[in-house]
Amino acid sequence: MSRSQGRFGGVYPILYCYFRRDGAVDEGAMAAQIEACLALNPAGLAVLGIATEIAKLSEAEKLRLIDLTLRTVGGRVPVAVTIGGPDAGERLRLIERARGEGASWLILQPAPEALASEEALIASFDAMMAAARIPTAIQHAPQFLGASLSSDGFNTLRARHQGFTLLKGEGSAIETERLARETDGAFAIFAGRAGVEWPDMIRAGAAGLIPAPELLDVMLDIERLMLSGQEAEAEARYREALPLITFIMQSIASLHTYGKRALAARIDLGEVHDRAPFTPPTALGLAILKARGAFAGRWPG
Questions:
Q1: Among residues of the chain, what percentage have pLDDT more than 70?
Q2: If you average pLDDT over residues 19-40, what whole number do you get?
Q3: Which spans in 43-87 are helix H?
């Protein structure tokens, strides 16, 4: 199996946000997470999405994470930065910082004040894309973010902005195939949802995957096997990982509570602290996490 890709494709782990006991962002843990991911040679790295708990972060913290991520990566791989915030001014400042620090592309979340209509969403994305001046994607995740554009809306923006060439698609493989067809295959679509349906997303034409990092090695293995025609081996690897993926992706709260702990255990980050609001782990939840994640073992290398 082969897959055509544009300028950007492959697996881009999106960083979790680790906090210190006092609630501040743990920059040491963030840098360790980045280095652990880069050791596995992913196609790129992403930051400030849902997995990074972007909604809990102040503008100053978002700006600092942009700086920390891009300076730690130091050009070793492309970096995608998610842009989201409560007002247009903040979003434009984040765009300016990401571009100035060397982000390769941006993932634009729907503006909270524009969720009421497609026309308002188009206008808000229009403004962000005009400011970007680097390649952009839209995060297409209505189940997580409250709204998204139709295929016609994507096509409208594509006609206006040459740099709008990517989508972060959080739908199923069937939905992804339909979206690619209705947008004439113009976008490199990155799947998400922690790798749910990853083999089928490749079959549907996804250019890449943006998963949280706890199973980065597995996602890279599946991609390699699928693209080399070893689909049975890829499916076996996916079946092995699916119980953990399913447990972690029961909700966004579960992703933050248990996904972060799965990665921390694999890369020896130590105790994980949460920032409110959060769902605390339970003894049963931690036991399930340990059992479902046992197959993965220590971080490679």
A1: 98
A2: 98
A3: 59-73
- Amino acid (one-letter) located at 116: A
Strand 105-108 relative to strand 136-140, pairing: parallel
- A 10 A CB-CB count for 159 gives 10
Task: Print the domain residue range for 248.
Answer: 10-293
pLDDT score of 2:
44
- Find the length of the chain: 301
Q: How far apart are CA 194 and CA 179, in angstroms?
A: 20
Tokens of 21: 């006991």
pLDDT at position 3 over 70? no
299 within a domain of the structure (yes/no): no
Which secondary structure element, helix H or strand E, spans residue 106, and what is its range? Answer: strand 105-108
CA–CA distance, 172 with 152 (Å, rounded to integer): 19
Residue 2 lies in a domain: no
Asked if 225 and 233 touch (Cβ cutoff 8 Å), the reply is yes
Dihedrals phi, psi of 233, to nearest 5 degrees: -65, -40
Instruction: Look up the pTM and report it.
Output: 0.94
What pLDDT is attached to residue 6?
56
Cβ(176)–Cβ(201) under 8 Å?
A: yes
DSSP 43: S
Q: Give every CB contact of residue 226 below 8 A, 6+ residues apart in sequence.
A: 1, 199, 202, 203, 234
245 closest CA partner among 270, 265, 268, 216: 216
Q: pLDDT tens digits, residue range 33-90?
A: 999 999 999 999 999 999 999 999 999 999 999 999 999 999 999 999 999 999 999 9
Task: Report the CATH number that the domain containing residue 156 is assigned in CATH.
Answer: 3.20.20.70
Give the Cα-Cα-Cα angle 183, 126, 135 (nearest 5 degrees). Answer: 65
Based on the structure, what is the number of domains in the chain? Answer: 1
Does residue 5 belong to any structural domain of this protein?
no
Domain assignment present for residue 21? The answer is yes
